[in-house]
Design a protein that fits this description.
Elements: H1 17-35, E1 47-52, H2 58-69, E2 73-77, H3 93-100, E3 106-111, H4 116-123, E4 128-133, H5 139-153, E5 160-164, H6 170-179, E6 185-189, H7 198-206, E7 210-214, H8 217-220, E8 226-229, H9 259-265, E9 271-274, H10 294-312
Parallel strand pairs: 1-2, 1-3, 3-4, 5-6, 5-8, 6-7, 8-9
The structure holds phosphoric acid mono(formamide)ester.
Phosphoric acid mono(formamide)ester (CP) binds near residues 58, 59, 132 and 141.
Length: about 325
């Protein structure tokens, strides 16, 4: 297996099967820091720089919490408007990264432009982690999702995934790439104007993913072991920020998971993952069903990032 030390985490396209499991094992071994709410010193000599050009609650704070739990240090920005990249100068990624690389040992970047973290990695002499780039990818979210499945179900091979939502979404790209490394079936359900592109389907075909597309969740939910959700009512991820409008629209039934649907048609053992934030596609009363696992994902997100940061910063080989 390749070493993680010094590696950029930009995409799950190039992740190998055993690398997923190794990262999960390392995350599990560090999880006690988060569970017992105490901090260690594994990364006491390391600093993480966050560069968030787009809003975030979970991704930025989970990375920061992971760093703090391992005794590391954190600096960076959560609002590019207050930097020279977001004001009159519109400073380039290249020039910005040439600064940031002297302020820490790893850069965690979210950007509204697809490929921006990869561009940063071209110029940075330290590892760059993609924390979500436009419609591109969101590798650390999907590593967290798969870590949650691995912990909750015990395996990934043999499962049927029902992926519901906007297939332009970066999580949908990362999970699809990741699942090509496992013996799984995937059913995609999305509005026609948000469906898998022909180009992306060709990539999945090349990578031998077994998948199909369906029109309505009610027709296929009985087959699902993992229900993987994203909103279909959501902002434009190619923009730095979008304010809420009064009428954001409602999710059609085809793309919603309700308590009633779960009770009538889902496997009793099916679990629901959602990267959050949610709209009306996942009503809050589903939280109280045995299917919900998205709050466990929040906890697992810290553990997974502890494991990933310890590996790429070379604290664990
Ligand atoms: N899941 C996720 O990416 O959430 P944030 O946008 O809050 O980081």
């Amino acid at each position: 297996m390749r070493s993680f030390k010094g590696r950029d985490i930009l995409s799950l396209k190039d992740f190998e099967r055993e690398e997923f499991f190794y990262m999960f094992e390392v995350a599990k071994s560090l999880e006690h820091y988060a569970r017992d709410r105490h901090n260690g010193d594994l990364l006491k000599d390391k600093t993480m720089v966050t560069a968030f050009y787009q809003p975030s609650t979970r991704t930025r704070l989970a990375h920061e919490a992971a760093m703090h739990r391992l005794g590391g240090h954190v600096t960076g920005f959560a609002d590019a408007k207050m930097t020279r990249a977001g004001d009159w100068y519109q400073e380039s990624i290249k020039d910005t990264v040439h600064m940031l690389e002297y302020y820490g040992d790893v850069i965690v970047m979210r950007h509204f432009q697809q490929g921006a973290p990869a561009e940063a990695a071209r110029w940075a002499s330290i590892p760059v982690v993609n924390a979500g780039d436009g419609w591109g990818e969101h590798p650390t979210q999907v590593l967290t999702d798969l870590y949650t499945i691995w912990k909750e179900i015990g395996h990934i091979d043999g499962l049927t995934f029902l992926c519901i939502g906007d297939m332009r979404m970066r999580t949908m790209h990362s999970i699809s790439y990741a699942l090509t490394q496992f013996d799984v079936e995937v059913i995609y359900v999305s509005p026609p104007d948000m469906s898998l592109t022909e180009e992306f389907k060709a990539e999945l075909d090349e990578r031998n993913l077994v998948y199909e597309e369906a029109e309505h969740v009610a027709d296929v939910i009985h087959r699902a072991d993992v229900i993987y959700m994203e909103p279909v009512v959501q902002p434009d991820y190619t923009k730095a920020r979008q304010e809420a409008t009064e009428d954001r629209g409602l999710t059609p039934d085809n793309y919603k998971i309700t308590r009633q649907l779960l009770a009538e048609k889902a496997k009793g053992s099916a679990i629901i993952l959602h990267s959050l934030p949610r709209m009306d596609e996942l009503p809050p009363d589903v939280d109280f069903t045995r299917h919900a696992r998205y709050w466990q994902e929040a906890f697992n997100g810290v553990a997974l990032r502890m494991g990933m940061l310890a590996l790429i910063l070379g604290a664990i080989d």
